[in-house]
Amino acid sequence: MPRICVIFDLDGTLVDSEGLCNQAFLDLLPQLNETVVSLTQRYRGKKLAQILADLERRLCQTLPDTFEQQYRQRVAELFSHELKPMPGVLEMLDVMNFPKCIASSGPPLKIRQALQVSGLAPYFGDNLFSSYEMGSWKPEPGLFQYAAEAMGFMPGQCAVIEDSDVGIEAAAAAGMRAFRYVRNGETSPRKAGEAVLFDDMLQLPQLLTLTQLIDSKDAG
Questions:
Q1: What's the pLDDT tens digit per position in 80-108?
Q2: Which residues contact residue 180 at a Cβ distance below 8 angstroms, ignoring those fewer than 6 apart?
Q3: Neighbouring C-beta atoms of residue 64, cutoff 10 Å
Q4: What is the pTM for the complete model shown?
Q5: Where are the alpha helices (DSSP H) in 29-124?
Q6: In a 3-state reduction of DSSP, which class is residue 173?
Q7: Residues 6+ apart with CB under 8 A from 81
Q8: 185-201 burial by CB neighbour count: b if 16+ within 10 A, else e?
């Protein structure tokens, strides 16, 4: 049976961080007439530089040079008090036997803090890959391709677990099978593509095992 490697996105997939990240914008920019929900929908999976440029355009003002540092600090504060794993993630990881890693658009310090606070760090060790280290951001395939090579797998042997349009596009561009996590109460994603949709993390090990069996049959 062919081996597979599972590449996880972090924010919004393994940890419930997207609301906190966007709350930080509202805390620092009180003139921003938005809700956490609307900001999350608008900026899910996007590179921070793109988000800041969009905020400047919408607010018709230039953000101070220190804004990114202030934003990172506010996010870290919110994470330290409020960050939790997504429902079912701990139980899912307890029973998953596949090699696994994280490939996130966030900086390494944010990734490590999120894993420590949420209790997920022991499941991944040092198998952590950041766009800030690779210089490649989703929807470019570079981050996923680098993670696969570092883990010792070909792209076709990898399954990507994502929650965003840009993440699904990156997985497709990398030649990897995609599984899209859709949170309860969310509308259907705009770009499902060839991704397998699921709304319960406890379903994931079985879905991956089924995929492995199908690939093994096809190979035979």
A1: 999 999 999 999 999 999 999 999 999 99
A2: 162, 163, 168, 189, 192, 195, 196, 197, 198
A3: 9
A4: 0.91
A5: 36-43, 48-59, 67-82, 89-95, 108-118, 121-124
A6: helix
A7: none
A8: eeeebeeeeebbebeeb
Residue 180: strand pairing partners: 162, 197
The amino acid present at 108, given as its one-letter code, is P
The amino acid at 176: M
Q: Is 188 left (phi over 0), alpha (psi -120 to 50) or beta?
A: beta
Q: Report pLDDT for 183.
A: 84
* Percent above pLDDT 70 for the chain: 91
Token pair, residue 206, equals 């079985």
Residue 122 is encoded by which pair of tokens?
């022991």
| Cα torsion angle, 57, 61, 64, 68, sign | negative
Mean pLDDT of 141-169: 96
Strand partners, 198: 181
User: Domains (ranges, CATH) in the chain?
Assistant: 5-16+84-219 (3.40.50.1000), 18-82 (1.10.150)
Query: How far is the C-alpha of 215 from the C-alpha of 209, rounded, in Å?
Result: 10
Strand spans (E) along 94-220: 100-104, 128-130, 158-162, 177-181, 196-198
The reported pLDDT for the residue numbered 220 is 47
Strands (E), the chain: 5-8, 100-104, 128-130, 158-162, 177-181, 196-198
C-alpha span between 136 and 179 (Å, rounded) = 21
Q: What is the mean pLDDT of the chain?
A: 92
